[in-house]
Structure to design on (685 residues):
């Protein structure tokens, strides 16, 4: 029975593998095809790390598939018809979920791997068909110009791929976790975007705020240095950045590209945290109980912890907005008409999205209290920021 | 055996199934009630799709929703799920990953019903789709079948075929729970009836016990006559209607009603009439609706 379930899912979803592989391959293979295999006398630019940047064309589309696949994995929970069918099956509800999550993971990782192997093969062919060193006389200047074959360390590239595989797999579980919180397509997408993009992107906001405030109060003099990391979160973008900074010549290239001290080290922290979040998400998606069938298709959150989730995301954004004045040099946001307008815009969008999520412009008491609390907290933080000169 | 103990399933403030305690033994049981009585919710809770708010359900001693309970039970909802563009053959291939079943039996039933095996069911009529899923339910290697709105959209010829198959399954020792609004068919099929009203058991009994206490009259009077007169005389009125100048009413325990009406109202005629078997369940539902009886 389990074998039939697995076979059915593979038959049903193999077009996704085809689509994902095609999309990733188009990006990755064409980027390799477009790469120059020789460089001029600037030997520095042929260093390993800098030349590994083409792997971004593998990482970004592969990361995108981790946002698409979980929707297919959890779509069966969005209609009572499907829930009637899957929840009464002669398996544990967890088994159904595990089968779908695992096959989804295989599709995501397999499509990335196939695309990588295609690109890797092309790179190898192109690399070894390029002459070692050539020199020619420039037809304009008459000078002899030396061209070098760009150096590629294939083992290093493969290692980068393995690390990316780990991060993409981890992101897939994180995305699965957020999608599993929703009970219809709209809420699933909403939680996915909210969780995997907004929250992770702004997770460092409270930390940043405290940092700036402390620096202003105590005049520690470390603000300028540390403030560079204010916007570092723990999302998919940061994890990709982390992999590249780790795999490139970390200190020199990190500084060379972003001109930020300690960024590569910070990125390692990001990677480790991302890995921890991934493990937690994996445990949740594999071991948590499926919700009762009556929630299928409903927009009302099935638990208060899920109700509060959009408000947490909004709070993080509000905190971040309250310190924006520091960056634009306005000397406090309340003095900056653009920031006040920006905050009002945020509050309006917050209310509109909440109404869309709950399918009603008349929020429930819980939502109303949370909305007022979040909007009020943001406003108070703005006042505090102004008072302490942030 | 399916055993429900003080089962309650609530949606917000509404108790769709309210303190329901009952055992279902082998044979065919008709679960009836008006729309919103809690039939589908009861089936879904037994099948483990909904989690009970209070109380327990056991299937052969296993808690509902457990793998052991679900392996031996199949619930056919009123709008069953089929993968997009699936043919009957695809459906059986899909469901065999979810339940133990007999594919040959399914294909045999599909042929008996005269349905094409390899055409997408999205092109089928509602009745044809229903036949496919009834065939699916009857092909399950399950001791317990819960069939929700089983005969909806089926023509009488098909119903007869299906009825025969269900009786066969029931006689083979399976426990079959059927909810349907097709009372005549259900009445000929079920050994036992459970009448639900607002989530509670309103009546539970053998088919032959249904409506035995009802007495139906038809009468015509010179003067105005109404339901309140019968109530004032101390009778429980289940149904009262006037068609032209003839009154039709159903009472419970109508002892002495003829004498009382003859002496006080001098009817043009007053006669006891037989109740159509199809009408009995409807009368039970009407009685429940009046709130006169709760188990």
């Amino acid at each position: 029975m389990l074998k039939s379930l697995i076979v059915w899912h593979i038959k049903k979803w193999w077009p996704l593998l085809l689509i994902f592989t095609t999309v990733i391959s188009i990006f990755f293979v064409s980027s390799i095809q477009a790469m120059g295999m020789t460089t001029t006398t600037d030997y520095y630019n042929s260093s390993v790390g800098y030349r590994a940047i083409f792997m971004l064309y593998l990482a970004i589309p592969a990361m995108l598939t981790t946002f698409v696949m979980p929707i297919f994995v959890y779509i069966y929970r969005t209609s009572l018809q499907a829930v009637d069918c899957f929840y009464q099956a002669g398996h544990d509800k967890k088994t159904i979920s595990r089968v779908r999550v695992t096959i989804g993971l295989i599709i995501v990782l397999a499509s990335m791997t196939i695309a990588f192997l295609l690109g890797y093969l092309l790179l190898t062919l192109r690399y070894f068909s390029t002459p070692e060193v050539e020199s020619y006389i420039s037809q304009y200047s008459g000078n002899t110009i030396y061209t070098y074959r760009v150096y590629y360390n294939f083992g290093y590239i493969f290692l980068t791929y393995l690390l990316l595989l780990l991060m993409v797999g981890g992101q897939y579980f994180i995305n699965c976790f957020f999608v599993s919180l929703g009970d219809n397509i709209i809420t699933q997408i909403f939680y996915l975007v909210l969780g995997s993009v907004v929250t992770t992107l702004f997770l460092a906001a409270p930390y940043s705020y405290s940092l700036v405030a402390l620096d202003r109060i105590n005049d520690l003099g470390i603000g300028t240095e540390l403030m560079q990391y204010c916007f570092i979160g723990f999302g998919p973008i940061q994890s990709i950045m982390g992999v590249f900074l780790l795999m490139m010549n970390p200190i020199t290239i990190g500084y060379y590209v972003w001109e930020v001290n300690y960024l590569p080290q910070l990125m390692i922290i990001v990677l480790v945290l991302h890995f921890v979040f991934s493990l937690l998400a994996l445990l949740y998606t594999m071991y948590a109980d499926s919700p009762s069938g009556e929630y299928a298709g409903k927009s009302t959150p099935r638990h208060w912890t899920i109700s509060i989730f959009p408000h947490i995301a909004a709070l993080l954004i509000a905190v971040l907005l309250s310190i924006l004045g520091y960056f634009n040099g306005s000397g406090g946001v309340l003095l900056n008409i653009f920031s006040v307008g920006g905050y009002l815009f945020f509050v309006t969008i917050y209310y509109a999205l909440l109404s869309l999520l709950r399918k009603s412009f008349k929020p429930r008491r819980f939502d109303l209290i949370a909305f007022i609390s979040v909007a009020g907290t943001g406003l108070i933080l703005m006042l505090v920021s102004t008072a302490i000169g942030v | 055996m399916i055993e429900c103990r003080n089962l309650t399933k609530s949606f917000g403030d509404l108790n769709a199934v309210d303190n329901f305690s009952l055992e279902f033994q082998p044979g065919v049981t008709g679960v009836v009630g008006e729309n919103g009585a809690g039939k589908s919710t009861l089936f879904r809770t037994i099948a483990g799709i909904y989690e009970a708010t209070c109380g327990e359900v056991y299937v052969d001693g296993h808690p509902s929703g457990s793998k052991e309970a679900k392996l031996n039970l199949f619930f056919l909802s009123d709008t069953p799920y089929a993968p997009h563009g699936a043919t009957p053959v695809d459906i059986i291939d899909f469901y065999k990953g979810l339940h133990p079943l007999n594919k040959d039996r399914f294909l045999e039933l599909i042929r008996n019903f005269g349905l094409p095996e390899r055409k997408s069911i999205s092109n089928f009529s509602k009745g044809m789709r229903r036949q496919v899923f009834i065939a699916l339910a009857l092909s399950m290697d399950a001791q317990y079948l819960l069939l929700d709105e089983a005969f909806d959209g089926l023509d009488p010829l098909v119903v007869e075929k299906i009825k025969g198959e269900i009786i066969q399954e029931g006689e083979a020792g399976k426990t079959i729970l059927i909810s349907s609004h097709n009372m005549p068919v259900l009445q000929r099929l079920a050994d036992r009836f459970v009448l639900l009203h607002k989530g509670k058991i309103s009546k539970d009994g053998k088919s032959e016990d249904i409506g035995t206490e009802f007495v139906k009259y038809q009468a015509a009077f010179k003067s105005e006559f109404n339901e309140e007169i019968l109530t004032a005389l101390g009778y429980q009125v289940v149904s009262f209607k006037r068609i032209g100048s003839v009154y039709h009413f159903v009472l419970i325990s109508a002892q002495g009603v003829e004498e009382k009406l003859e002496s006080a109202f001098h009817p043009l005629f007053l006669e006891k009439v037989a109740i159509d078997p199809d009408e009995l369940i409807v009368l039970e539902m009407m009685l429940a609706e009046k709130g006169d009886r709760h188990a």
Remarks:
- Chain A has a mean pLDDT of 79.
